[in-house]
Design goal:
Protein name (chains A, B): Rrf2 family transcriptional regulator
Order of helices and strands of chain A: HHHEEHHHHH
Shape of chain A: elongated
Oligomer: homodimer
CATH superfamily of chain A: Winged helix-like DNA-binding domain superfamily/Winged helix DNA-binding domain
Mean pLDDT of chain A: 95
Number of domains of chain A: 1
Strand order of the largest sheet of chain A: 1-2
InterPro entries (chains A, B): Tscrpt_reg_Rrf2, WH-like_DNA-bd_sf, WH_DNA-bd_sf
CATH class of chain A: Mainly Alpha
Largest sheet of chain A: 2 strands, antiparallel
CATH topology of chain A: Arc Repressor Mutant, subunit A
Largest interface: A-B, 38 and 38 residues
Amino acid sequence: MFSNSVKYALKAVLYLAIHSSEDKKIMVKELNKPINVPKAYIAKLLQELSKQNIISSTRGIKGGFYLTKENSKQNLMNVIYAIDGDYRMKSCMLSLSHCNQNKPCPLHHIVSPMRDKLIEAFNKKTIKELSLEIEKGITFLPI
Amino acid sequence: MFSNSVKYALKAVLYLAIHSSEDKKIMVKELNKPINVPKAYIAKLLQELSKQNIISSTRGIKGGFYLTKENSKQNLMNVIYAIDGDYRMKSCMLSLSHCNQNKPCPLHHIVSPMRDKLIEAFNKKTIKELSLEIEKGITFLPI
DNA sequence: AACAAAATATGATAAAAATCATATTTAAGA
DNA sequence: TCTTAAATATGATTTTTATCATATTTTGTT
């Protein structure tokens, strides 16, 4: 459902949500170990997220990646779509191109309601909310 | 969530459920076009399913693939696991190896209940039931 | 202004998944 | 028993995804 890249991206964004701010930028080399993702790989993903304004960055000395207040108000789905696009989440489970409510595939009635709920949940949940849950110890972001 | 291979396998199994029987075996070359899957590819998958007793087959002239009554009583999950194994369905959405109810990942509370329901539904639903729905025109198996 | 330290852009390489090809084995029918 | 038509076993090729590498640009500091 998620690509590896999205998994990494989500971990990185949540890490930034917890540890960074406009005054405390985080360099790739500080971030890759705690979230257990190869440095060059996460660097590329962060660059892409930055280009799409999901996260913020500044170059040069004292630079790094960080989340602004605005950034952290974004919902999960924005991060997911930025990396994977929407096909992965939205497409028919059997990849039948004409599958819809009128001409449902054999799995449609099983899968579709749950998937819709999942998408709705991802659309509602913000980065900020998730990061607060981690800070409160409700959820965890380990290896 | 599903590999391409599982998608193809499910389509093929459902096609066999509808069109085959012990008296009416279906050859690869008859089946690949209606379900829109490359011949050599689906052949390999059918061989694997046959080896795992998900479907039945006989070789030689008048041979082909088919489903016995027993075969069609199997549930969806058997087909899925036969091709993809269980990791894909069961693993943490962020691939965190220690994610569980006690140490849930940031997405666990969103994803886990729905995934469990999905797995339950796939475990309950048999090939036969799905194929009946297709035959009744409740669902469709087009391209 | 020059330097150093960071992200950025670009693309190369490696690994995995998807796809294709073919020689071998088996079963039915003449 | 020979031939033919099917699955089977095996593995090669292609495509996609994941991973790694590096030259360039930018920015703060001296």
